[in-house]
């Protein structure tokens, strides 16, 4: 669960800097903060730990979904470089410090992308890898380091070496990946994890 908590923290910290705006990765020309340096080898893989729902158990498992089932709007979260993470945390602190020169001096979309976003090269490399396995890249959020992609369950099995199964959780039907996804080791330096490889959604605690 620590890995999953870190994945959502990475998203929320960046969203704290910017809540709107999307720019395709190919629209940027400067190669800043690139983390991918190796050629992709599909036989050398690493596991993205903490990317499986706790509800996925043998008792709940009803078997695999159809290969043709379309999984829409999955989110692949990219990593920041260690220096970017350090700079981001310090900047967020200064934004809320009345004594700091940068107090409430919000950055533009372009500034956030340049300082804290994934490099266009890394985003393009990962996007092309997803497309090579039959996924559609819907949009790239460079400022947040998120790639929104969709595709059939068969592509998830081929690309991520996991399967999407039907689940019965307390009488409610769900679908989810049954084990942590894998990616080529060459991408591990730039990829944090995958969100929404399932249909579980947050529930409100409000009572009408």
What does this structure look like?
- This protein is of the alpha+beta class and 208 residues long.
- Helix content is 27%, strand content 24%.
- The strands form 3 sheets. It has a 4-stranded antiparallel β-sheet.
- Residues 1-31 have low confidence and may be disordered.
DSSP summary, beta strand count: 9
Outline type: globular
Question: Percentage of helical residues?
Answer: 25-40%
Q: In percent, how much strand structure appears in the residues?
A: 15-25%
Which sequence of SSEs, written as H and E, runs from N to C? Answer: HEEEHHHEEHEEEE
Spatial separation of the terminal alpha carbons: 31 Å
> Compute the gyration radius: what is it?
18 Å
Oligomer: single chain
Our count of helices gives 5
Low-confidence stretches: 1-31
Mean pLDDT: 86
* Arrangement of strands in the largest sheet: 4-5-3-9
Q: Which structural class is indicated by helix and strand composition?
A: alpha+beta
Main sheet? 4 strands, antiparallel
